[in-house]
């Protein structure tokens, strides 16, 4: 199985607001009702961007892919830790 690290970005400034790790269609899951409510900031940001006419391909940016889940997790943690000080990253590592 392949795993990946991705960002949800605000395409207007290319600034990330969420960093995650996933496989299959995990990055797309942020756009479906079942994922709503976990992170209201992220959900509101996505809804605002969609209302402005952006789509999933504009918002999801894939950064790294590997079959090694532990490696992908470490990269996700590194990116989150190093992004919090300089940007508006609002997510938690599960």
Overview of the molecule:
By secondary structure, the chain is α+β, with helices and mostly antiparallel strands. It has one domain. Helix content is 33%, strand content 26%. The chain has helices at 40-51, 56-59, 69-83, and strands at residues 3-10, 15-23, 60-66. A 3-stranded antiparallel sheet has the order 2-1-3. β1 and β2 form a beta hairpin. The relative contact order is 0.26.
Topology:
Blueprint lengths: L2 E8 L4 E9 L16 H12 L4 H4 E7 L2 H15 L11
Antiparallel strand pairs: 1-2, 1-3
Helix/strand structural class: alpha+beta
- Which blocks of ≥5 consecutive residues have pLDDT under 50? none
Quote the beta fraction.
Answer: 25-35%
End-to-end C-alpha gap: 20 Å
How is the largest sheet built, in terms of strand order? 2-1-3
Gyration radius, rounded: 13 Å
| General form | globular
Report the average pLDDT across residues: 87
Helix content: 25-40%
Number of separate helices:
3
Number of domains: 1
Largest sheet: 3 strands, antiparallel
Order of helices and strands: EEHHEH
Number of strands: 3
Identify the notable features of this structure and list them briefly:
94 residues; alpha+beta; 3 helices; globular
Quick rundown:
The chain is α+β, with helices and mostly antiparallel strands and about 90 residues long. About 35% of the residues lie in helices and about 25% in strands. It has a three-stranded antiparallel β-sheet with strand order 2-1-3.
């Amino acid at each position: 199985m392949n795993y990946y690290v991705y960002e949800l970005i605000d395409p207007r400034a290319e600034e990330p607001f969420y960093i995650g790790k996933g496989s299959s269609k995990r990055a797309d899951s942020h756009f479906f009702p079942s994922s709503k409510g976990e992170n209201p900031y992220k959900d509101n940001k996505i809804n605002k961007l969609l209302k402005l006419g952006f789509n999933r391909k504009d918002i999801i940016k894939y950064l790294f892919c590997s079959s090694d889940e532990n490696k992908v997790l470490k990269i996700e943690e590194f990116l989150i830790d190093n992004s919090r000080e300089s940007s508006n990253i609002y997510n938690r590592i599960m």
